[in-house]
Amino acid sequence: MTAEIRRFLLESLSEMNYDTDDVDDDTVLGPAGADLESLALAELAMRVEDHYGVRFEDDEAELFAAMTVGEFCAAVADRVKTASAT
Amino acid sequence: VSASGAVTGIGLVTPVGAAVDEVFDAVCAGRSGLARPPGDHALHGVVDVAAFSPPVAADSVIPPKDARLVDRSIVMALRAAEDALADAGIVVGRDVDPYRVAVVVSGVGGLGTLADQAVERSTRGRLGVSPFMLPGVLPNMAAARTAIKFGIRGCTSSVGTACAAGGQSLGEALRVLRAGEADVVVCGCTEAPLFPTFADAFGNALALARGWADPTAASRPFDRRRNGLVLGEAAGVFVLERPEFARARGARVRAEVLGWGATNDAHHPTTPRPDGSSAAESMRIALRDAGLGTTDVGYLNAHGTGTKAGDAAEARAIRAVFGDDMPPVSSTKGVTGHLLGASGVVEAAIAVAALRRGLLPPTHNLDDPDPACDLAHVRGGPLAAPVEAVMSNSFGFGGHNVSVVLGRGDG
Q1: Is B96 in a helix, a strand, or coil?
Q2: How close, in Å, is residue B124 to chain A by CA atoms?
């Protein structure tokens, strides 16, 4: 599941015109790493919602900035699991 | 305090070229910017004819990750602003204090992108709407993104006076300079109206030219057979400076904006006041503001869009102000189409070229002048005439009338 989410994330970043060559599991999504700014983080959350049918609260999307790629994929996987369990 | 504004740079994106001389040569030679919509264009099958500008890649003027969903109007404006500042030789921060630079860049905004997003919303729901939409469509964003791109920190604004917005932006820029609020103003207008919803709105209002087998014949200001306007897309940006500031930094002053006037018809949302009295008053105010008399004006670039009512009302207004001694008059929209708000800036650029080259462009397609438009037409070809001052008219839906007077620079 996590590998699939990582693939989805990289495809999304690429479609959003971000360079993904140097992105790995330890890359932070926000300004310290991949440099996603607030609107891009909001779009990323929407893409996940659209693709996986899960819902994020506004303040959750803001937390993505501090996450690494690995943490983000785990968080999404966890959310998908929770959503499918209920 | 400045009496006038020095034109030191011009940047254009138009259906007939980007360089001022290229645009001027096209309108003088009747090299039309009008065409049938290509098969892959959204307007294919929607309108017979329009005036298309060349593509401008968003990521050529905006960093790629910020360039998504930015409306074409904003992209064209940034290209025009870049060219205008380069033409003026100004780097903000190097040549001028960023807080002493102002922006007045106008236009109706990114309505085409808004229309696309409305379709996405109705088909996909909430998730169809991009968080990037607002900075891509709001009507202030051409001005705001100009400030962001060039590090301009002074007062920035855009005016919403429809097809009078370009002329009014030059006037507002002059007002800012005269008030001493800036040394340099980046001013202009941008319009990207070539999408189906917008074109159909004009078509259903019976404002568009129709029934012309040759698309280049469709825009014919003041001609007896005219039957409407042809929509076009364009951006135009001027760099206007306090003349003292421009000369102190050794800039070449191509022309000066000497004065302007603005009135409203107070008549109808779209139909011009038939007697042209408010339009006439805006011309008189502009002359007074420039300190000139009617005989000082050597050329008048009319708004002249090719609609029955608009051209006749403007002709009445011009005659009321200038009488039989009126200067040579032409509308260059026969070649460019109606560039909406941007037309005021593109036509001011044409006026600058006329001043510098002593050549007055004709009204293209004016084969049989309408007796209701009794003017000193330039037609059949350009007219050689050295001129010291020119007037450019721009009128907009809402009854907005703007007249701008320009005079010669020093080279």
Answers
A1: strand
A2: 10
- Tell me the torsion sign for CA atoms B316, B322, B328, B334: negative
- Name the burial class of residue B103, with classes exposed (0-12), middle (13-18) and buried (19+) by CB atoms within 10 angstroms of its CB: buried
The nearest alpha carbon in chain B to A55 belongs to B127
pTM: 0.96
Residues 13-32 of A with CB under 8 A from B: 16-18
The pLDDT score that the predictor gives to residue A2 is: 87
Rounded Cα gap, residues B359 and B251, in angstroms: 24
Q: How confident is the model at residue B411 (pLDDT cuts 50, 70, 90)?
A: low
Residue B359 reports pLDDT greater than 80: yes
CB B1 within 8 A of CB B180: yes
Catalytic position from the list B28, B187, B189, B303: B303
Task: Report which residue type is found at A73.
Answer: C
| A17 to B68: CB separation less than 8 angstroms, yes or no | yes
CB B141 within 8 A of CB B109: yes
Six-digit token string for B386: 């050295």
- pLDDT > 80? residue B400: yes
A54 close to B (CB below 8 A)? no
3-class DSSP state for residue A37? Answer: coil
Tell me, what's the pLDDT at B2? 64
Q: Is B221 left (phi over 0), alpha (psi -120 to 50) or beta?
A: beta
Compute the distance between CA of residue B104 and CA of residue B302 in angstroms, rounded to an integer: 23
Q: Is the dihedral of CA A12, A18, A24, A25 positive or negative?
A: negative
Q: What are the chain A neighbours of B121 within 8 Å (beta carbons)?
A: none
- Report which of B400, B380, B402 is spatially closest to residue B391, judged by C-alpha positions: B402
> Rounded distance, CA A69 to CA A10, Å?
9
Confirm if B112 and B93 have CB atoms less than 8 A apart. Answer: no
Q: Compare CB distances from B132 to A35, A43, A50 and report the shortest one's residue.
A: A43
Question: Is B163 annotated in the active site?
Answer: yes
